[in-house]
Every structure is written in C-alpha cells, then in structure tokens.
Amino acid sequence: MVQPSLMLRAHGPARLRLTSTLNLEGVTIGGGELTPGAWGEGFVDRRHPHTYLHELMVTADDLLRDADGSARISLSAGKGFAPFGTDDPMSRPVLRYPVNHHLAQILERAVAIAAVHRRGISGEIGLFNGDEPERPGQWPRIGGRFGDSWAARVTGAPIAGLEVQGSHARVHSPEHRPGAGTDQSKWSLSGRWDGTLRRSPVYALVEWARTSEASGFFTFSSFLAEGAWSTGSHRLHYRLERTERPEEQRISHFRSLRPHLENSILGITRWTIHTAGYAAPSLVRGGVVLQPVVEISHGRIGKVGGGLFDVRQTYGKDNFWTVTLAVRAGFGGGMHRMGRYGAGASHDSIHQHREQQ
Amino acid sequence: MRQIGTFTTAAASAALLLAISGCGSEDDDGGPIDPPPSSLTLSIAGGGDNVPDRYTSDLWVHADYAYTGTWGGSFRNGNAGNALKIWALDAGGGPSLADSVIVPNIGTVSDVEVSADGEVLMFSAEQGTDEGLYLYSLVDPSAPTFLDSVHVPAGLHTATFGEIDGRRYAFTAKNPPDPALEIFDVTDPESILPAASVPIPDNYGIHDTYVRGGLAFVFAWDSGVFIYDVGNGIRGGSPTAPEVVSGLVTAGNGVSPSVHNGWWFHNPVTDEARYLFIGQEGPGIVGQSASGDIHVVDVSDLEHPEEVASFRLPGAGAHNFWMDEARQILYAAYYNGGVVALDVSGTLSGDLSDRLLDRIEPGGSGNTFTWGVQLANGSLYVSDMLSGLWQIAVEE
C-alpha cells in the first residue's frame, strides 16, 4: 500500500491553525516503492518511504488582523515543507512519483516560516534544518542544524485560477546528517492552473527546477509538465518529465551508499518519462470512496557527460515501460496542498483532482 | 602510498630527525642528495591499458614485483573490484601481469602495501560480507599465499604499516558509520590482533593514515588532520593507546576540507621535517572529472600546525602521494589530471603553481583517472583506474 496518509486540519482560537499529515509508508513500503528513476534518501529506482509524521505545522495566521490593511501575515512552525518549489506529488493527480522530487520540493524538515499575502501576491521565507530524513521514524535534527538552511518563495495569481511561483533555497548538507555533505543551491519556477474547460475541471502544472551542488560542481535540472482533465466521473491525466539525477555508488540494486564516504558520483543520467493515466468513476460505500486507476509510463534513460556509469550495463537497456493498476481509497474531506502554510497558502484550495488516500 | 618506517620509543623524540632519516622505505629511490632539477620530464616507459576487466585502485611496488588493487564502486565488464593483480617487472622495470588473486565476498581492494622486509603483503577491502584487512605471505612474491584476515563491518578504506618498538602494526581507516582509526598488531601475520580503536568524528570519517617517527597522521575529511602519538613520546602514546597531539582543518577552498591523504616530508637537504602535504579529495565524477588541492601544513611545531601553502591544478583533483625526498620532489596522483611532479624544496608559502615541474596523463585524455603513484627502482609507477598500471620514466 502506497501513500497511506491521514490528514488533519484544525482551526483553534486566536487564528491558530493546525496542519498535520501522518504517513504510514514506513510500515507499508519500508523498502520503498518500485519507481524507475526515483532517487533520494539512499534509495535508487525505488521511491523512499516518507516519515511517519509528514507534517505537523502550527500557524498563527493573520497576526495583525486589520492593522495591516488588506495584508495577511502569518508565522508557521513545526515539521513540514520549506517554502520552496511545488506541491508534494502525493497531492497531485499523477500516481507515479516524479524523478524530480528532490529537486522540486524540500520536505520533512523542522521549519519556521514567515509569510505575507497581499493583493494576490504572497511571499514566504523559512529557516529549516538542511538534513533530509534517513528513515521513517527519524526526527529532524534541530540541535546544530536548525537554521543552517533557508528558502524563500514568491507566489502570484495574475488571473483567476493561475498561480505562478518562483523560489530559491540554500540547503546545507542535505544528504549527511552530521553536516559534512555538500551544499545545494536550488531554484524553482512554476505555473499552475486550476480551472474549467467546457464545464470540466482542468488542472495543469509546468515547472522547472535546478539544483546546483558543491559550489556548482554538480548541476541537475528538471522540466515537468502535467495535467488532468475530468469529465463527469472520469478523469484523464498526463505528465512529461525530463530530469537529471546523480548516479551514486550502490550497495544493492535499489540502495546507494549511506553514509557517504566522499563527494564523488559515477555520472549523471537524464530521465525522460511520459506518464498517462485514467481514473474510473468512484464507488462510494459508507463514506469510503474507492477509485480504480490505471497508469502507464514509458521512460528513456540517457547519460549526461562522462563518468563510469553505464546505462546499458546497469539496466540492460535504455528505456522502460511501467504499468500501474491501483485503487485509491479515501474518506473524509479532500487533501490539502502539501507545502504551503498560513499566508503562503492563500492560493490554496482543497484539491479538486485527487481524492484522499 | 605511505612510507614504511621503524621507530623505537627509547630513541626519544630528541633523536627524531636522525631516526627519520634512516627510516625511508627501501622502496624509495634513495639516490644522492641533489638539489631539485630545474626541469623534469615524465614520459611513458612501459605498461598501460593492461587491466581491461576491472577498474584499478592502489599500487605497491617491491623489488621485482608490483601489486595493484581493483575498485568495485561500479562494475567493469560485470566484475567487482575483488582482484589483486600481481605484476612481474622486467629488467627495464616494465610490468607484465603475472597472476591475479580473486578474493571472495569483497567489492574493492582499496589499499595495498608490502612490509619493509618484503615478507608480507597487506591490503584493505571494502564492500561485501568479508570486507576488512587481509595479509598474504610473499615468500614467493609471484604467488602470494593467504595468512590471515579480519572482518571489519563497513570496511576499511586504507591500511598502513607502522613498525614501533619492534612490533609491526597495521593502522587502518574504518569507514562510517562509526568511523575509527583501527590499529592491529600484525607482528605475527598469521594472527591479526586488535590493538586499539580510536573513534573519529563522523564528518565522512577517516580516509588514510601516514605513520612515521612514532606519529600517526590521521586524515579525517572535514574534521581535518589529527596527529597522534603512537610511540614518539611527545604525549606518551603507544599503538595500543594513541594520544592526540594536535589537529588542523585545512582550507576548504570553496567546497569542504575533504582531507584525504598526506605525506610528512623529511627533507634530507635541510634536515627538517617541517612540511606535511595533504591531499584534498574534492567533488568528482569518477572517470571524468575531479577537484581538490594539495595543502601544505607547517608541522615544525607539532602542537600548533599551520597551513602555509597550496597547489591547485585547475580542472583536476589530488589523490595519493609519493615523494622523492632526496630530490625534494612530490609526486601526486591527480585523477583526471594524471600525475603531477612538484618541486617542494626550500621554503613553501602561498600559491605553489610555479613549482610544477611536469605532468603526464598516462592513458591520455579520456582514459586517465590516476589513483596512486610510487617511485621505485628508478621509475615512477602509476595506478590508473581506467588504464591500469604504468611505468613512467623520470628524466631531468
């Protein structure tokens, strides 16, 4: 079972808000989910399980009430997403995780975020610990790490339904918890549209992300475009992704060497993947929603530059097909957009295209 | 990769330099003390493109044989780095493959060394269920026979002989997690005995050691270099109870210190043991590109080491060293940069780029990623990950 999540959103007194997501992948897919191209947190071609406490953020919203006119200012703190990049893929229509997950999101950190929203534009800045989780039960390392990394994001809504964002982050030693790893400089630009076309809900996202590591010695770029179109109770979705990833020394087919011993890699590969999917009408029984989903992907793997990594020697070929048959099960309200809090979530709405797992 | 030395605690630290002058490896050139050449030329003399089945790692040359390890961080032609290659050297010093020892259940032979008396071959191993320390007899140098091994979880990155108080030790670098300087008593090579375990900070841990004059220099990545008394007397340490003397974190030069290896230079011309050369292993793409400088640390006051100079080869990165101490020349493996020869005579300060004597990419562009270098029998031997074992002529 993948992406088993329980979300809770609560409003308290004095404009306090709680946003939380529990994730049980540590139990259900402790060895990761088979996903060619996925990487990060020591996994290769298997998407890593998330930490049990995916989000637990407390937000003091609209701190100045009317004193700041039409502006809305918030402070958020807890464990969650740094204000960088796009929403967690879990809250987007395509079931398959994108290769660019670690280029386009910064998640599961101890984070403090100040945000302001005014006249359709929001700005967020956050401090967090740079180290990424090493296992589902691990807490962010606060002592000695909190505040060693930062991110800032500006989001605008020039027309109804359209949201554009640009963000930048400096992340210290994300892949080595004690802090000896290389630093990353990250950029993200995206445009997202939620609207209707001929009375049918439509979602579209185009994003570009780039991570420069070790003072520019390594650079990984990603372009991704995805969309979903719903008609009646049917939904079609599609994603095109072209993302570069590091090829690290492996200790098995699906795990890379951790902890690191040095800062060398074997090469860089580029993954170009088309994914198309169809979600059938849902069955509703006693408040539980069951939605069959089929998804098919075709990917091509290319090598960028030199290095010892050999695509054909590793995989036997340079392209692949994957087919996914799944049933989404959910109950309660819709998912929130994972990755935004307080005034930074002013563009948020309960996701129209993804039922709660 | 490192020099073998002998030292007796009773000799006392006051006699350190005298003792050192006599502890040069029998493998080094040992020629007359001349000023460094004003010019020097490195050229191919033999070998090369001779290990197509695996990636080559470290080397050691002793008498008429050379031994090279293999690296398995990535398979080559489906093979892991589980082989030790044995090379016979002809009358001109040219290497030809004589045999291979395949070691089961390891993935990389990460460091190779022969004892000063030529009787024992030692190598460290990483990856696989039997990673650790291995000793082989060289009674027949063309056919090493297994003596003993010890399994070390997470593997050993390097192993260095040190002879102290009449006993022989292996100073080894245990990989993370829980990195440590692991010292073994290998006086009886058929029975490896643990002597001491010194935890090293987990900033990528420990990569290499250099043992000389009763001191063990521990090269510990972003924690810098630590100097331990293991029989010198300066702190009362011993191989079973090392005592730290001092430490220094060298400059990161825009990345991180990445302190990997070193050589404590005993200059017979000046009778000084002033400079410690440190290799910085910066970020790299194995087989293509590398980075990292040579850092020079003044250790004339062992308790207060100070970085005084550095050398950068743009577009390449430093790895293992060898020195022609008599001629005051440092040879550095430089990965995609091949091999660099530096004039290190006199006082070293600031940027040493004008000290470059010569450089050679033995396998040529795109076929060079040099791991190690050793001066022996009048030739420079080079182990290259891509192109194997080379003999390089050094001509003035």
Offer a concise description of the structure.
The complex is a heterodimer of chains A (357) and B (396). By secondary structure, chain A is mainly β.
Task: Describe the structure in your own words.
The complex is a heterodimer of chains A (357) and B (396). Chain A has 357 residues and is mainly beta. Chain A has one domain (5-345): Beta Barrel (Porin). Helices cover 4% and strands 53% of the residues of chain A. Chain A contains 3 helices and 21 strands. Chain A has helices at residues 25-28, 101-104, 311-315; strands at residues 5-11, 16-23, 33-40, 43-47, 53-60, 72-80, 109-118, 121-128, 149-156, 162-171, 184-197, 200-213, 218-231, 234-247, 250-252, 255-256, 264-265, 267-279, 283-285, 288-304, 319-331. Chain A has a 16-stranded antiparallel beta sheet that branches. Chain A has a two-stranded antiparallel sheet with strand order 3-4. A two-stranded antiparallel ribbon of chain A has the order 15-16. In chain A, a hairpin with a 2-residue loop joins β13 and β14 (234-247). The longest helix of chain A is centred in the last third of the chain and has 5 residues, at 311-315. Chain A is globular, with a radius of gyration of 20 Å. The model of chain A is unreliable at 349-357 (pLDDT under 50). With 396 residues, chain B is mostly beta strands. Chain B has a single domain (6-395), classed as Methylamine Dehydrogenase, Chain H (7 Propeller), CATH 2.130.10.10. Chain B is built from 1 helix and 31 strands. Chain B has one helix spanning 16-21; strands at residues 6-7, 41-47, 55-62, 65-71, 83-89, 95-102, 108-114, 120-126, 132-137, 145-151, 156-164, 167-174, 180-185, 193-199, 208-212, 215-219, 225-229, 243-248, 259-267, 272-280, 284-285, 294-298, 306-311, 321-324, 329-333, 339-343, 350-351, 356-360, 370-376, 379-384, 388-395. In chain B, the strands form 7 sheets. In chain B, strands 1-11-12-13-14 form a 5-stranded mixed beta sheet, with no helix packed on it. In chain B, strands 19-20-22-23-27 form a 5-stranded mixed beta sheet. In chain B, strands 2-31-30-29 form a 4-stranded antiparallel beta sheet, with no helix packed on it. The two termini of chain B are 24 Å apart. Classes of the chains: A mainly beta (357), B mainly beta (396). At the A-B interface, β17 of A face β21 of B.
